[in-house]
Amino acid sequence: MKRTLTIFLLSLLVAVTANAQGGQQKPAADAKPAAKLPTVDQVLDKYVQAIGGKAAVEKQTTRAAKGSFEIAAFGASGTAETYAKAPNKSATVIDIAGFGVVQQIFDGKTGWSQDPQNGLREKAGAELASTKLDSEFYKPVRLKQLYPKIVVKGTDKVGDKDVYVLEATPVESSVETWYFDTQTGLILREDAERESPEGKQAIQIFYEDYREVDGVKMAFSIRQITPAFTLNIKMVEIKHNVPVDDAKFNKPAAQ
């Protein structure tokens, strides 16, 4: 159980707040074509405005967040802290009761993971590429630059909300599918694959409980669904433009 839990946590947790600005659903392939669809620019521009606008997002240079998480299937729970610094540094530290501390760190060029099961490990290849993409501080306002190919696929539902479904292909990582609320413009769900030591892991990420923080809307509740379990993350505090020491993004000391 601990090995399975660790593998999935290592593939999930970098993305905790990457797109958070701004029961399982049907797969993207079931998205319904619509007679009149908005353009990619229209959907993404509405999203940026929905979260507060490009200027508000770019006023932020650091982020520090604290929360808790629960994985009911494994009876696991604990605390989570995330730190981010423009343009692309990130660090996630979670403390799992009865297991220990799991860390995910990207210093802008190199990424590492560390946990009590596998020790310290440097990332490479597709896994490093995914980590770099998830660590982009201004990702919500740079989607067209980070994903050279984006296509509006149709409409669908996330819960009782109508959504536009977009398929996005980054330069190096796997294709992602995004679901934007047709009314609010906010992103409600993301389907992606994340690399792990055991290969690709399919993830559905649901963004809920949006609140305004320093002029930017952030999701305070994040559900990450995998074939093995559902991870529920509840943020209790998100702060912008607070001092974040660069030491947070240094290579972890081997335990």
How is this structure best summarized?
The protein has helices at residues 2-12, 40-51, 54-58, 125-134, 143-146; strands at 62-71, 76-85, 89-96, 100-106, 111-115, 119-122, 149-158, 161-169, 176-181, 187-196, 199-213, 216-225, 230-240.
CATH C-level name:
Mainly Beta
**Element pattern in H and E:** HHHEEEEEEHHEEEEEEE
Q: Which strands sit side by side, in order, in the main sheet? A: 6-5-4-3-2-1-13-12-11-10-9-8-7
Q: Spans with pLDDT under 50 lasting ≥5 residues?
A: 23-29
The rough form would be described as globular
Average pLDDT, rounded to a whole number, is 88
Biggest beta-sheet profile: 13 strands, antiparallel
Number of strands: 13
Residue fraction in strands: over 45%
CATH topology descriptor? outer membrane lipoprotein receptor (LolB), chain A
- Give the radius of gyration: 17 Å
What does this structure look like?
With 255 residues, the chain is α+β, with helices and mostly antiparallel strands. The longest helix has 12 residues, at 40-51. The protein is globular and about 55 Å long. The chain has one domain: outer membrane lipoprotein receptor (LolB), chain A, CATH 2.50.20. It has five helices and 13 strands. Mean pLDDT is 88; it is low at 23-29. It has helices at residues 2-12, 40-51, 54-58, 125-134, 143-146; strands spanning 62-71, 76-85, 89-96, 100-106, 111-115, 119-122, 149-158, 161-169, 176-181, 187-196, 199-213, 216-225, 230-240. A hairpin with a 3-residue loop joins strand 2 (76-85) and strand 3 (89-96). Strands 6-5-4-3-2-1-13-12-11-10-9-8-7 form a 13-stranded antiparallel beta sheet.
